[in-house]
Amino acid sequence: MLRNIYILLFSVLFPLCSLAQVYTLSGSIKDSKGEPMANVSIEVKDNISFNTFSDEQGLFVISNLPKGTYQLQFSHVGLNPISRTFRIESDRETQIVFSQDEINIDEVHVTAKESKNISTSSIITRDAMQHLQPSSIADILELLPGGRTGTHALDQVRGINLRTPTNALMSGYSTNSLGTMFSVDGMSLNSQSMIDPTQGFGIGVPNNNRNTSNIGVDMRTIATDNIQSVEIIRGIPSVEYGNLTSGVVLIERIKGYEPWSARFKSDGYSKLFNLGKGFDLNQYKLNFDAGYLNSLKKVSDIFNGYKRINASIRGEKFWNLDRYRLIWSHNVDFNTTIDNERFDPDNDYALTDRYNNSVQRITVGNSVKIFSSNPKGAFRNATFSVNVNHSSNQIDVDKLVQPFAVNVLMNSLLAGSHEMSFLSSKYVSNMQIDSRPLDVNLKAVSNWNVKALVNHQIKGGIEYSYAKNLGKGQQYDLNKPLNITITARPRDFSKIPAMSNLAIFAEDRFFINFGKVLFQNSLGIRAFTLLNLDNRYHIDGKIYLEPRYNAKLHLPQTNVFGKNLKSNIFAGYGIQTLMPNQNLLYPALHYNDITELSFYPNNPEHRLAWGMTNIYDPTNFNLKPAKNFKWEVGTQFDLEGNTFSINYFNEKMNNGFRDVTLFNPIAFTKYDVNSVDPSTITTKPSIDDFTGENQAQYHSYIKNENGSLTEKNGIEYQFSSRRIKGINTRFTINGAWLKINNRNIQPVYSVIDQNLVTDGKVRQYIAAYKNGNSGGTYESFNTNLTADSYLPKLGFNLSVSVQSLWYNSSQRLFRDDLPIGYYDIEQNYHEYTEADRNDPILRNFDLKTDPYSYYKFTQPIDLLVNVKATKVIKEKIRIAMFVNRLFIYKPNYTQHGHYFIRRNNAEDNPYFGMELNIKI
After folding, report:
1. What is the extent of the structural domain holding 56?
2. 16 has pLDDT over 50
3. CB within 8 A of 439, min separation 6: which ones?
4. pTM
5. Does residue 139 share a domain with residue 56?
6. What residue range is the signal peptide (predicted)?
7. Distance CA 415, CA 413 (A)
């Protein structure tokens, strides 16, 4: 019995003694200048469970190492890896120094690179952007899976639409773009106080293509010359990032020493110039740059253009203390864009028509980062930041107005029936609009390492944002409106209440080892609420939660054909929520004007105009945040530098923001102009001299609703080979199958044709349809093949990309031709019956849609070839050129009994460009 007890105690205590004999390897990683290097990959050969990354301080810790000999590889993008062998018999410390003179040509990417982070994202380096030669950040989206070379014209707003077929961009489904967060050096560019200043004023096409109120960030405004890298998170991001639905764009700019550099670019649409310089002044880094871009819609049209001026000053100050390292980062950025459009005086009669939209933005950022110098301590770092973003959106419009008939001037600011005046037969209207969004963001984030059963990397933080528009709104002569049918009046934006958003978040990244299998997890939650709201709003006082989870299972390394194969499986689920902005929460009052009398005799002193003004507040107090439920699963493989990744994603947002048209009956008096004989009067008549009839009509107004349903699913894939020795050529294949369903889930109302008269009255009925009148299913499948050769000894880089859109299809959402019911002018509801289809008035609610319009239309292959080349001369001069759409293949096709001829339009023509970079 005693012998058995000894054996039992030995079997229990021996493993515990063995577990106790473990050690720690820690150290720091620096570059040749002694600066810490973050995000260095540290791989332990034959035991991936110990793999890790260096932190922002360049520190790393590998714990629980049993006694033995280990081979470690330290890798960083763009540099040759460093291999070291360590004999572990006790706790050890080491220091790794990278020589930045040895470039790893296999790490030079001219395409997007799938990141090794736990969430699905693409990383675009400075090498890729220099080779691509973009004019704005909008151009780099072609490098993403599913991306394709598009037009380089900058005559309209460029919003971002991740994981969306290009033929699916529709009005009413812009939450995808509005819900993508842009961050530059940790500063958000998204504004919650950007208000649509032109709704209801009838400015028309020049403004419609340049309105960013419900689009989000206009990518044309972001220059790429000072960018070091861009990470675009398409999957489930960290809970640190909030107030979004679609994704995150993280932009990191150049910091530290840079020689004087100048960039000159010219292409078929634009001219660009940029100048920059970076200093390294005894633990103080200072960078500045400035750029100018001038773009025309057409080379032959000098009257329609877009201009951008940008400047930035950025500084970083370092303090090395005994136990901590302190970094103070600060910046001042200035950006101005000018959209203008006017008519050619030699070709158009409207010599006065002019549109000018000038947007200026000043951003001031400050952040303090504290890093622990002890790699074994629980506290790792903390960041405190304050960012202020102030914009000025100025619109100046001149328009010649020539009514074709006598029109009553509707400009009353009060509701009710009033005497009006008559509109001039010809005049020039001028409107100036002043919108000044102010956004302030305060954020504190801390990171900790905690050992509790497993290793935990804990992140926690709090964020507060304040948004207020300080603009004066629209300013114009009320007697000279831009349009004779305006439904708005001047509004002072500064009187709109400010918005305050408070959020807290916590995230735990923990690692579980199963032998040679590493299970990486990221579990987080974000809670937020809107402050300073009227208690009538549904979202007032509500706290919203966003749980997000990502997991990655690193499988054991195997040997395939004598080469090491690394692989992993990843999955994620998360909720992403976007709060309505000021434009949605505080819409402008809606004005409906009805002419009651237009008495217009020859004698001007006897003329009388009378009208009814109805004012309606379209504020939707039941508006809710838009929520996107997202999940994805995928796998990645790495066969000694040959990488392949594929993932499937599914997203559903059933309450996106959209404008919904609704109707109100408006009562008024219709006066008989013939009840007063103009030949018999000697003075101006009064309204009481006319006989009138009380009437009512349905008139429309716009209301913001949670009425858009968007469902996305797709497969993204990318393969990237190692560079083939001898020719230093890499082949990259990426693409995506994308499918999206858009649907209007709100009831749709339609007023009877105003040309149809019922008992001498018009607009007497509105119909209700069960199905929405917009939306559909859109699908595309594309593949991009890029071959790039990098020859550093010759200073030459050449790439050829073949971009094939195998097909894209669209199918319009079915809508019932017959309404489910209708309302009469007394707002009584009636079911729509068979008898109504024969009624001379009500039968017009039968849409009689051609079934052909509901067919699924599929366009076959659309292939194009792009060529780009870069030549570096003595590391001081870089000459680059590109030819997009050098070759195009778009065959004609037959579908549904029709033969479709596809002719090349202006966007299909070959597109050339060249740039020169000089460093001094």
Report:
1. 2-102
2. no
3. 188, 190, 191, 192, 193, 388, 389, 390, 465, 466, 467
4. 0.89
5. no
6. 1-20
7. 7
